[in-house]
Amino acid sequence: MFRTYDVPDQRNLLDQTRQGLIGEPLDRPEGALKVCGVAPYAAERRPDDCAEGVLVTATIAQGKVAVLHRDEVLAMPGVLGVFADKRMLRRPAQGTAGQAPVQDIREVDYYGQPIALVVAETFEQATHAAKALRVEYQPAGEVPFDPEAAEATPAKKPVVLGDLDEAMAAAAHSVDLTYTTEGHASAAMEPHASVAEWQDDRLTLWGSFQMISHNVKELADSLRIAPGHVRIRSDYVGGGFGSKLGISHDAVAAAIAARELGRPVRVVLSRQQVFDTIMRRSETRQRLRLAADARGNLTGIGHEAWVSNLPGEQFAEPVTQATEFLYRGESRKLAVNISRISRLTAGSVRAPGEAVGMQVLEAAMDELAEKAGLDPVELRKRNLPEALPGKDRPYSSRLLAEALDQGARAFGWQERAPRPRMRREGEWWLGMGVASAARVNMLMPAAARVRLEADGSLRVQSDQTDIGTGSYAILGQIAGEMLGVPIERVTVELGDSSLPSGAGSGGSFGASSTGSAVFRACEAIRDKLAHRLRVATESLDLRDGIASGSGREVPVTELLAGEPLDEIGRIKPGKSQRDYAQASYGAFFCEVAVNAYTAETRLRRMLGAFGFGRVLNAKTARSQCLGGMVWGIGSALTEELAFDPRDGQLTGHDLARYHVPCHADIPALEVILLEERDAAASPIQAKGVGELAICGAAGAIANAIYNACGVRMREFPMTPDRLL
Ligand code: MOS
User: Fold this and answer.
1) Pfam family example for this protein (predicted)?
2) Are 242 and 349 in contact (CB under 8 A)?
3) Is the shortest distance between the CB of 79 and ligand 1 below 6 Å?
4) 182: annotated active-site residue
5) Interface ipTM above 0.95
6) In terms of pTM, does the model score above 0.90?
7) Hey, what domains does the chain have and what are their CATH numbers?
């Protein structure tokens, strides 16, 4: 049913069409609705007779709930029910949720884990009752809170090639360094929320999700019902950053309570509950070994990481992901080790793997460049492999050297002082830094429907979500471009699981995957139009509702003759994905000022140059790059999940204490979008951009700090207390 993508499509059809929509910096069609507060988010869908649910979270780290004093709160005004069903306790993973309900005896695995849902007529009544609910625990305490105190085991089979120890011993230049990064929160603007409504045995759930077709299965699994009986709507999503890849407790709890009560139930998490219960990026410890010959050619790379998660969780932050393909170095040892601790679930947060792996790799590369006496740009350029190390697989397209060169020119890299502490302005040391950017590229199974209406207007439908990234805009642009329809006449409907399954928003694959499904559907419609015009598909030209070819010119509405054309396009990864090592690339350049007395670091300016295949919309792509760089800056300077060492409780669980960068932290950022086509990546020759600009950005800032004040920072975030 899904067509695999096997042979790189070199036709560049989107370069030959003439509607002029592809790549144009068009506004997001839902942008004004979101900004003006008109776009309804999940929590704003309140059906008649909707009851309000508030989650109760554990105030111990480990153990069992012995007694829930539900009778006391059931007597409170407006309270409708107290639900404590085992199915809603853990963050459900597909296929693993849905154990039999057990009354009143539950496991607690971490501080802040949801243990019950209190439902009342109003939100205030539910909040009051949830606070009043007395819980008696049977504490236990076998699992440590501190990752360093827990024993680590390999998360997967390490990559071992050649003999790294030998390469290190024989190296003309080498570094052997250990770094740490703190945990991160996704920190999406819109808190998680679910509104559940049953009609007989069918559930409709309004929620905030990234991957709806996957989320339907998770929810059905958790409730032990058929996926066909679950419909999810996420028309508008206020950011995800990984935290909405899977469903969360609110969805399962709202569905269970709504069924029991026979009326709709809404559950909205507080900001603190989002921090406490959804997920974290693991903290990491990373040992980097780089071995190079006298000319700075890498002969070996060691990248060993230590991360953590709850006992039994599958996910381990894939820290070494980019190290596998980025640079040369025949001898290698790449490993991720995991320890089991009692802190909330670790999961995919904003470019899992590369975000923290690249910032450390790129900082280590800077130290190696200094030892080898090379400009750090030059060190990177001379270490780009011909083929994927150890696999001999060619790269699809890779504009890393170009990004470094163009970025260096545009930034004024030649102004960089060759040694630290050479540029001073009042009490500030000034310095510049560079880093590479890289993020793996994925094509995922996706479907989309395109309907060319009898009146010549166009409708695009998929359950693809738009989490603020531009799906509504770019899917409309692709369809309008392919079928010669002005953008004003294109309607895009997303975020409803009853529509064909898009790839979802995750791993930066949404635009290229679901965009390719739209492209395929349009190809099928083009074939039919060409047939009706009696021209070969290759000579069909569509623009502004006019079909032309072989000297003929006919309005498309005439070819349609009162009937719409409706096609579903489908794509899934194939040989093309297996035959080529695929990633998006780029380079960061930045300038910082470090206060000589307080060690405060202020970013002065930053530039990123990025190549990620075809640019579908220059405005949304640039926004993705800006957002990525902002996350990189946060990772470098301010973002840090702090846990109480006594019980694993998250202490900074709101945006006042978890510091994402604010406007005053972000100077003018410049983005260069490189011209590129990657035929191996997808039929539309686009790759992922969503997460690219996070990956490595913090390394550039660490390198600039060194260039400014001569301090090598190996602990992130590089707060003044660490830098002093
Ligand atoms: Mo992304 S962390 O795969 O949403």
Assistant:
1) MoCoBD_2
2) yes
3) no
4) no
5) yes
6) yes
7) 4-39+444-573 (3.30.365.10), 42-142+192-268 (3.30.365.10), 351-442+579-723 (3.30.365.10)
